[in-house]
Automatic annotation (TrEMBL):
Name recorded for this polypeptide: M23 family metallopeptidase
Upper lineage: Bacteria, Pseudomonadati, Campylobacterota, Epsilonproteobacteria, Campylobacterales
Keyword annotations from UniProtKB, A to Z: Membrane, Signal, Transmembrane, Transmembrane helix
Transmembrane segments: 12-30
The M23ase beta-sheet core domain, residue ranges: 335-429
GO molecular function: metalloendopeptidase activity
Length: 456
């Protein structure tokens, strides 16, 4: 009797262990996972223009078995997509196109209901079911864009100004697009809905076209072409012969400073690295610093002509395309993107316009390099300085001595490398040194634009 009782107890215990093991298997097994599929609508703005497809992603670790997408409107429900997958996938990316005739709908808001089922054996082999509803506001109207005023022309390597109006209650993005895919930023101007921006035609680009592009939250796009007359300008092509004296002197001196030329013994290779790689690195930093545009609204933009060096003589021009040769063989090339001016040694550099000091440090070929921001994405650059009189973050007033000329960096003699940049693009300093050019292309455009805005 005792043995039979022991066998019975062992049997009960064995069954209990089996039940627990089965329960643990079901609980921890991936086959019986209990997490419902995740449903993510990529267009997270909450708007739909009923033109562009919506992008939807469904994910599940066990695999998506089936999904259904229903659009709920005031006229009822309409199934947009339904599929039971023969080969379940862990991730399903969908494009939800609007139904035929949807663009004529009068609804201002719809609901998108998404259901997804996975391949899990949980829930008595039925799997996990996820359901999510997305409310979408319908916006089929593209932003209204109109040009209020702009400079009459733009020269190759030069600048221009544009003032425009954008009307859209759901405006999301706004920029001026050039034909070379440069995105110029615009700053709010004078009154709500109006914007202003400086444009620049890079000296290396063969042509220029600018279009204001406004995009709303629903993806509607409004555009307006900026009607600028293009004035081509030829820049000097200089063929420069490199001497051994130059290689063993200035280049050897610079090569000792840069990490990129350490271990390079060939003088011509040193020159090539300095003229191309180091220059590109220095200019990349400059472009990053000078690409910022304020976001607050401005009512005016007044600029006096720029002339930083009293009695300074121009010794090298902007836009000069320099090709370097050694013993008749082409070695390297570069563009000179500033105006070199010389006076006497350590001559005072004075800014005629107030601004904020945004950079004051050593910058490779530019030596001691100072950069001032004057607002609206306009910057002035001062290279090869011997010393600075101002610090980063300091606001300087007009007619302030900011530095002294020198020969730091890639400079053969004491001079100032003077640069003007618009949103990270080097432009002709001569334009901004011309009082009449500033009046016709900047001041008068702003004055007339404000008059037009006041009349509307």
């Amino acid at each position: 009797m005792r043995r039979r009782k022991n066998n019975s107890s062992f049997g009960v215990l064995f069954v209990l262990v089996l039940i627990i093991a089965a329960g643990l298997y079901v609980y921890f097994s991936a086959t019986f996972e209990r997490k419902a599929p995740s449903i993510v609508l990529q267009n997270s703005s909450g708007f739909w223009n009923l033109k562009k497809p919506l992008k939807l992603t469904i994910k599940d670790d066990s695999g998506v078995q089936a999904y259904k997408i229903v659009m709920h409107t005031q006229d009822g429900d309409k199934t947009l997509q339904y599929e039971k997958l023969l080969n379940p996938q862990k991730e399903v990316d969908l494009e939800i196109a609007p139904p035929r005739g949807a663009y004529t709908m009068k609804d201002k808001e719809i609901k998108l209901i998404v259901e997804a089922q996975d391949t899990s054996k949980w829930n008595f082999l039925k799997g996990n079911l996820a359901q999510q509803a997305f409310k979408l506001k319908i916006d089929k109207k593209r932003p209204s864009v109109s040009i209020v005023g702009n400079s009459y022309k733009i020269s190759k390597g030069g600048s221009a100004l544009v003032v425009f109006k954008v009307d859209d209650e759901n405006l999301e993005d706004l920029y001026i697009l050039s034909n070379h895919n440069k995105h110029f930023k615009a700053e709010p101007f004078y009154k709500e809905g109006y914007y202003i921006a400086l444009l620049a035609w890079p000296v290396k680009d063969s042509g220029f076209k600018a279009t204001v592009v406004a995009t709303d939250a629903a993806g509607n796009v409004g555009k307006a072409y900026v009607p600028l007359y293009l004035k081509n300008k030829d820049y000097r092509l200089s063929k420069i012969t490199i001497s051994d004296k130059f290689l063993n002197g200035k280049i050897a001196e610079l090569a000792d400073q840069f990490e990129e030329t350490q271990g390079v013994d060939n003088k011509l290779e040193q020159f090539k690295i300095i003229n191309e790689d180091i220059r590109a690195k220095n200019e990349k930093l400059i472009h990053k610093i000078t690409s910022k545009v304020p976001e607050e609204m401005i009512e005016n933009f007044k600029m006096k002509k720029l002339y930083p060096l009293k009695n300074g003589q121009v010794v090298a021009y902007f836009g000069d395309h320099r090709k370097y040769y050694y013993k008749g063989k082409f070695i390297s090339e570069a563009y000179h993107l500033g105006l070199d001016m010389a006076s006497h040694a350590m001559a005072p550099i004075v800014t005629q316009n107030g601004g904020e000091v945004v950079f004051a440090d050593y910058n490779g070929l530019y030596g001691n390099n100072l950069i001032l921001s004057h607002g609206l994405g306009l910057y002035t650059l001062y290279g090869h300085c011997s010393s600075f009189d101002v610090n980063v973050g300091e606001d300087v007033g007009p007619n302030t001595k900011i530095a002294s000329t020198g020969k730091t960096g890639y400079a053969m003699g004491d001079h100032l490398h003077f640069g003007v940049l618009v949103q990270g693009i080097e432009v002709r300093p001569q334009e901004w040194m011309d009082k009449q050019w500033i009046k016709l292309n900047i001041s008068d455009i702003i004055k007339n634009a404000k008059k037009i805005i006041d009349e509307q």
